[in-house]
Design a protein that fits this description.
The complex is a heterodimer of chains A (114) and B (118). Chain A has 114 residues and is an all-beta fold. Chain A contains no helices and eleven strands. Chain B is built from no helices and twelve strands. The chains are: A mainly beta (114), B mainly beta (118). Chains A and B meet through strand 4, strand 5, strand 9 and strand 10 of A and strand 6, strand 10 and strand 11 of B.
Chain lengths: 114, 118
């Protein structure tokens, strides 16, 4: 099976712009989660989607939003970019949202905000 | 609130020696624990998980982890380290959600850099 894919792999934006990141889960997986990784804050949870519904949300400002489509693919959007949004954004998929399910991560999208 | 701690920022071992990467946890309810590894410019790769049952969990690439409930620890181990094991290792615990345990959200430790020298 193909793994989790994320596009694009690298992005450079300037402050004030907006960006959309895409994630395609492993075939058959219906749950997608997003995480932000930075050197200072480590790995932080952004949101979790299952069957097109947001089930859980992390402690991020409203500039961060996401959605999931009927084919389980997910996008996240960051509006009005700030320098502090520079990070590696990781998407993970699992078959369901049970706590026992394993999440499999994609390679990430490296966002640089100038 | 659920949390995990990785007390060592870096662990150095010689190739062929056993390695241990430490992780302690704090949870309310059942602990569902995971180890992931991250190589430079890559995403996280799943190594192993503890859900229930045997306290010694075997995973990928020869890694194993020992769950110790009394010490609230879940240390990652490997009997013989390889140079190629050099990477960043993360311990994680499932969060609890609205009083239930059904959430995909993982809470990660700060990570431990493993350096294996030839």
């Amino acid at each position: 099976k193909a793994g989790v894919t994320q596009t694009p792999r690298y992005l450079i934006k300037t402050r004030g712009q907006q960006v959309t990141l895409s994630c395609s889960p492993i075939s058959g997986h219906r749950s997608v989660s997003w995480y932000q990784q930075t050197p200072g804050q480590g790995l932080q949870f952004l949101f979790e989607y299952f069957s097109e519904t947001q089930r859980n949300k992390g402690n991020f400002p409203g500039r961060f939003s996401g959605r999931q489509f009927s084919n389980s693919r997910s996008e996240m959007n960051v509006s009005t970019l700030e320098l502090g949004d520079s990070a590696l954004y990781l998407c993970a998929s699992s078959s369901h949202y049970a706590s026992t399910d394993t999440q499999y991560f994609g390679p990430g999208t490296r966002l640089t905000v100038l | 609130a659920q949390s995990v701690a990785q007390p060592e920022d870096q662990v150095n071992v010689a190739e062929g020696n056993p390695l241990t990467v430490k992780c302690t946890y704090s949870v309310s309810g059942n602990p569902y624990l995971f180890w992931y590894v991250q190589y430079p410019n890559r995403g996280l790769q799943f190594l192993l998980k503890y859900i229930t049952g045997d306290n010694l969990v075997k995973g990928s690439y020869g890694f194993e982890a020992e769950f110790n409930k009394s010490q609230t620890s879940f240390h990652l181990k490997k009997p013989s380290a390889l140079v190629s094991d050099s990477a960043l290792y993360f311990c994680a615990v499932r969060d609890s959600f609205l009083g239930s345990s059904n959430t995909g959200k993982l809470i990660f430790g700060q990570g431990t850099t493993l350096q294996v020298k030839p």
